[in-house]
C-alpha cells in the first residue's frame, strides 16, 4: 500500500465481511499512505504493541467514494467472467485486504456494473 496507492488512483470498494462478498463501488485515493495511529492507542481495538511512531507497522490511505454500484458484484458472478480469470481477488486462498487490479480487470468490473 505504501508504495503502490497514489493520489488520484481509482480503487474498487469490496465488502468482504458479508454473507456474499462483493465489489460494491469505486473510490479515489485522496491522501497517500500514512501511519495508522490507532495501532499506538492501547485503548483502541487496533492496538499493536510492536508498532510505534518511530517504526510503524500499519498504514492507511484516505479515499473518497466515487460511485456505489446499483447492484453488488458477488464473487460467484465475477468468477464466471473470462476477463477476470487471473484477478488476484478471485484466486483461491487470497486473503489480502489490498490487492493489485489490472486496468483490464478494473474496466471489466466497471462494464459489468454499468459504471463509467
Describe the structure in your own words.
The protein has 116 residues and is of the alpha+beta class. The protein has one domain (10-113): ph1033 like fold (Roll). 13% of the residues lie in helices and 31% in strands. The protein has helices spanning 75-78, 103-113, and strands at 10-15, 22-35, 59-74. Strands 1-2-3 form a 3-stranded antiparallel β-sheet. A hairpin with a 6-residue loop joins strand 1 (10-15) and strand 2 (22-35). The chain is elongated, with a radius of gyration of 16 Å. It starts with 9 loop residues before the first strand and ends with a helix. The model has no long low-confidence stretch (mean pLDDT 91).
Overall pLDDT level: 91
Q: Write down the domain tally.
A: 1
Task: State the low-pLDDT regions, or none.
Answer: none
Radius of gyration: 16 Å
Let me know the largest β-sheet: 3 strands, antiparallel
Overall shape: it is elongated
Strand tally: 3
Q: State the name of the first-level CATH class.
A: Alpha Beta
CATH topology: ph1033 like fold
> Considering the protein shown, what is the CATH homologous superfamily?
ph1033 like domains
Q: What proportion strand? A: 25-35%
Number of helices: 2
Order of H and E elements: EEEHH
* Helical content (DSSP H or I, runs of 4+): 10-25%
CATH architecture: Roll
The largest sheet has its strands arranged as 1-2-3
CA-CA gap between termini: 25 Å
| SS class | alpha+beta
Amino acid at each position: 500500500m505504501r508504495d503502490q496507492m497514489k493520489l488520484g488512483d481509482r480503487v474498487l470498494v469490496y465488502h468482504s465481511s458479508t454473507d456474499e462478498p462483493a465489489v460494491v463501488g469505486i473510490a479515489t485515493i485522496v491522501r497517500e499512505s500514512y501511519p495508522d495511529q490507532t495501532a499506538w492507542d492501547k485503548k483502541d481495538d487496533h492496538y499493536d504493541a510492536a508498532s510505534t511512531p518511530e517504526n510503524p507497522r500499519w498504514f492507511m490511505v484516505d479515499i473518497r467514494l466515487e460511485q456505489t454500484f446499483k447492484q453488488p458484484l458477488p464473487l460467484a458472478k465475477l468468477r464466471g467472467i473470462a476477463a477476470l480469470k487471473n484477478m488476484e481477488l478471485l484466486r483461491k486462498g487470497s486473503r489480502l485486504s489490498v490487492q493489485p487490479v489490472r486496468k483490464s480487470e478494473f474496466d471489466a468490473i466497471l462494464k459489468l456494473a454499468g459504471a463509467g
